[in-house]
């Protein structure tokens, strides 16, 4: 099979909020395109893309899945991305390698918090976007309400390109406003060919067709002139102009349907082919210098049997199994070996993959997610995928003694697969800490350690990653001196520390400034002071949390011709910092989470009251179709065990979604308790 030409490929990430039907939609598209001969369902665990056991059990996508299909001689690569905030790594990685995002919205709930998040990321990467309003068969679903919400909350350049025929459980098909035809197939089988638009919809179709044409011609002068002269514009010309506008991010067509009944898929597939630009048209912003062959590895799968599978996009090529590339990061040469196309859990070998296409290879030696491999070493800056930082940490330990190494090895593999999962040892307590974006993500990792790597791990209660910082400037001087016969120890330094607040939206950091004049401390000892300060900053004196947001200026000092050593200056630096820190009004910081809770209207009072008692601050409330979405900011410490509380308040009908927002100072009365608690723990540890 020869490589597909770049002009004939469409790369599309299917993204959106949790549970809006992305996986079901991918399933329907594969079915309609003839890749599968039955429509799988989430309930029965028979979809192509949610194929892992734990995805079946939890009825949700836990990682990005690759699928592809052919439609009108175009190859469409669809990456089905998880919607849950804890599993965003794959979503962000996928968005980095596609030209288009298919943003799925629920016809009932409209624009939800994660839709906004992925929209913002797509905006950053200047991706072409198509919106699909799904679940229109559900009670209280309303296409026009969601269209309006998309226009207000996503972009006023969202324009309907399809309309539903009928509504709620009587929805029977869609009208394609571009080609002016209808697709109706109430049986849920494969959609047949185009049909005439039902007469009863004439007026509405006329109105929305005009809105669409107005929006399209506005982006194209030639078409605008013809339109104003009253010419009936042919569908191909409108489609070509539409593609131009979508490519340039000037329009976002809004399609609609019902994934689980396979309604609206023909029109959607046509739109993906006609509306979304190919790699040849839009190209990539990832650098590969003058390499003749290059690939970007954007995801790694830890398969217990096949080993490491590296998923990549071809930047320059084609590439085939014989291709040998070099990784400029390690300078290691890697022969690709068998090139694969992934389709859910299956893979099929292919001879070659052309520019813009997406595929995978197994068993590359030292390649990690984020590497660009090239045919000869060229200086390239690998693209930075801005993965979210882990926000929650749990202490973990193997259930069986002696399994420590096995647990660590399994976790290393899982972190390769999901870079937002990290394991490290807490130097203070010696515990292994597993950090991630949400409790569920960490629990899934623990399940996978069991199912893939056969090691049972115990999860201990989560820890809140407090930080410490200072409010005031302070100075301190410390002289470390020891005379014990023979050569002594001598280091003396004076420092000034000052607060360094985070840049807007940025993280707190640290800076060491060398202000020594006249060489009172030799150059060789100054980094030792920095090192000592950093060590002291690992555990602040308030609650043992890392100190950040501090600038340390080394202003003065003294050395001894014989007795001075790096060690002595390190200790002096460390102790000087401790002194200065105590005088600099240290404060405790805690992570604040942004939470979106969706609950039945009648439970809003109870849920709000509860959030309030958790020090939550209400940001907004939106009642939609019997459910209310509450947005609030809540300290992480108060919301660690929210799911049980929400279940009991809403009789299991509530759902929530949260993500890290920023650090804030802990209110004094709360901070006091944490500080005392730490003190007690330290004393017990000493005893
Ligand atoms: N009535 C109705 N149910 C749907 C539709 N699409 C999906 N569902 C159901 O909604 C639930 C969630 O569907 P999924 O396809 O898993 O949604 P998702 O967006 O992939 O979910 P995550 O990957 O976990 O974010 C499943 O029970 C589906 O059967 C639809 O169009 N109509
Ligand atoms: Mg899914």
Radius of gyration: 29 Å
- Overall body shape: globular
Count of DSSP E strands?
Answer: 33
Strand content: 25-35%
Tally of separate helices: 18
| Biggest sheet: strand arrangement | 2-3-1-4-5-10-6
Small molecules in complex? guanosine-5'-triphosphate, magnesium ion
Low-confidence stretches: none
Give a short account of the largest sheet: 7 strands, mixed
Structure in words:
The protein is of the alpha+beta class and 687 residues long. Helices cover 29% and strands 31% of the residues. It has 18 helices and 33 strands. The chain has a seven-stranded mixed beta sheet, with helices on both faces. The model has no long low-confidence stretch (mean pLDDT 91). The site of magnesium ion has 5 residues, from helix 1.
Write the layout of secondary structure elements.
Elements: E1 9-16, H1 22-32, H2 53-58, E2 65-71, E3 74-80, H3 88-95, E4 100-106, H4 113-124, E5 128-134, H5 143-153, E6 158-160, E7 162-165, E8 173-176, E9 181-184, H6 202-217, H7 221-228, H8 235-247, E10 252-256, H9 265-275, H10 279-282, E11 294-303, E12 307-316, E13 319-320, E14 324-327, E15 332-335, E16 339-343, E17 346-350, E18 352-353, E19 358-362, E20 372-374, E21 392-398, H11 404-417, E22 422-425, E23 432-436, H12 439-453, E24 457-463, E25 467-470, E26 474-482, E27 489-499, E28 510-514, H13 526-538, E29 550-558, H14 566-583, E30 586-600, H15 604-613, E31 617-624, E32 627-635, H16 636-639, H17 642-650, E33 655-665, H18 668-686
Parallel strand pairs: 1-3, 1-4, 4-5, 5-10, 6-10, 28-29
Antiparallel strand pairs: 2-3, 7-8, 8-9, 11-12, 11-20, 12-19, 13-18, 14-15, 16-17, 16-19, 21-23, 21-24, 22-23, 25-30, 26-27, 27-29, 30-32, 30-33, 31-32
Helix pairs in contact: 1-9, 11-12, 13-14
């Amino acid at each position: 099979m020869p490589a597909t030409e770049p002009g004939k490929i469409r790369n599309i990430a299917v993204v959106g909020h949790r549970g809006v039907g992305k996986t079901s939609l991918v399933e329907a598209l594969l079915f309609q395109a003839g890749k599968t001969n039955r429509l799988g369902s989430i309930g029965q665990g028979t979809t192509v893309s949610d194929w892992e056991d734990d995805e079946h059990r939890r009825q949700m996508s836990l990682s990005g899945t690759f699928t592809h299909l052919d439609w009108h001689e175009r190859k469409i690569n669809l990456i089905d991305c998880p919607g849950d905030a804890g599993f965003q790594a794959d979503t962000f990685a996928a968005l980095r390698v596609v030209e288009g995002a298919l943003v799925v919205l629920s016809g009932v709930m409209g624009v939800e918090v994660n839709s906004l998040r992925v929209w913002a990321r797509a905006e950053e990467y200047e991706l072409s976007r198509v919106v699909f309003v799904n679940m229109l068969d559900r009670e209280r679903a309303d296409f026009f309400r969601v269209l309006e919400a998309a226009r207000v909350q996503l972009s006023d350049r969202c324009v309907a390109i399809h309309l539903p025929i009928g509504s709620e459980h009587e929805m029977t098909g869609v009208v394609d406003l571009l080609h002016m035809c209808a697709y109706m197939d109430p049986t849920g089988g494969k959609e047949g060919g185009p049909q005439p638009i039902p007469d009863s919809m004439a007026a509405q179709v006329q109105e929305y067709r005009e809105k669409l044409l107005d929006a399209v011609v506005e982006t194209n002068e030639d078409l605008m002139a013809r339109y104003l002269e009253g010419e009936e514009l042919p569908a191909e010309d409108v489609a070509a102009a539409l593609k131009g506008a979508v490519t340039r991010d000037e329009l976002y067509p809004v399609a609609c349907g019902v994934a689980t009944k396979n309604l609206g898929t023909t029109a959607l597939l046509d739109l993906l082919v006609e509306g979304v630009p190919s790699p040849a048209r839009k190209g990539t912003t990832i650098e590969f210098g003058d390499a003749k062959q290059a690939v970007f590895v954007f995801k790694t799968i830890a398969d217990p049997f096949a080993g490491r599978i590296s998923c990549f996009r071809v930047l320059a090529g084609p590439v085939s199994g014989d291709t040998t590339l070099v990784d400029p990061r390690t300078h290691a040469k890697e022969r690709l070996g068998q090139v694969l196309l992934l389709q859910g859990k299956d893979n099929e070998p292919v001879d070659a993959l052309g520019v813009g296409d997406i595929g995978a290879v197994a068993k590359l030696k030292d390649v990690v997610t984020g590497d660009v491999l090239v045919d000869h070493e060229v200086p390239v800056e690998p693209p930075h995928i801005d993965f979210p930082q882990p926000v929650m940490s749990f202490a973990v330990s193997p259930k069986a003694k002696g399994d420590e190494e096995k647990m660590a090895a399994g976790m290393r593999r899982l972190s390769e697969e999901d870079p937002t999962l990290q394991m490290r040892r807490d130097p203070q307590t010696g515990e292994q800490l597993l950090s991630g974006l949400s409790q569920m993500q960490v629990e899934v990792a623990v399940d996978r350690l069991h199912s893939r790597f056969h090691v049972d791990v115990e999860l201990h209660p989560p820890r809140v990653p407090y930080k410490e910082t200072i409010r005031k400037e302070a100075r301190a001087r410390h002289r470390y001196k020891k005379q014990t016969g023979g050569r002594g120890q001598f280091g003396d330094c004076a420092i000034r520390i000052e607060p360094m607040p985070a840049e807007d939206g940025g993280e707190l950091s640290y800076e060491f400034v060398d202000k020594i004049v006249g060489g009172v401390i030799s150059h060789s000892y100054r980094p030792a002071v920095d090192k000592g300060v950093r060590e002291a900053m690992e555990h602040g004196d308030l609650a043992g949390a890392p100190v950040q947001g501090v600038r340390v200026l080394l202003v003065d000092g003294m050395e001894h011709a014989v007795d001075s050593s790096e060690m002595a200056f390190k200790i002096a630096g460390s102790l000087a910092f401790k002194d200065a820190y105590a005088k600099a009004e240290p404060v405790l910081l805690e992570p604040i989470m942004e939470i979106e809770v969706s609950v039945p209207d009648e439970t809003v009072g109870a849920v709000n009251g509860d959030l309030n008692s958790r020090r939550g601050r209400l940001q907004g409330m939106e009642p939609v179709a019997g459910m209310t979405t509450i947005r609030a900011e809540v300290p992480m410490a108060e919301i660690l065990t929210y799911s049980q509380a929400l279940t009991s308040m809403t009789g299991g009908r509530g759902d929530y979604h949260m993500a890290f927002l920023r650090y804030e100072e802990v209110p004094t009365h709360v901070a006091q308790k944490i500080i005392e608690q730490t003190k007690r723990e330290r004393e017990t540890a000493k005893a």
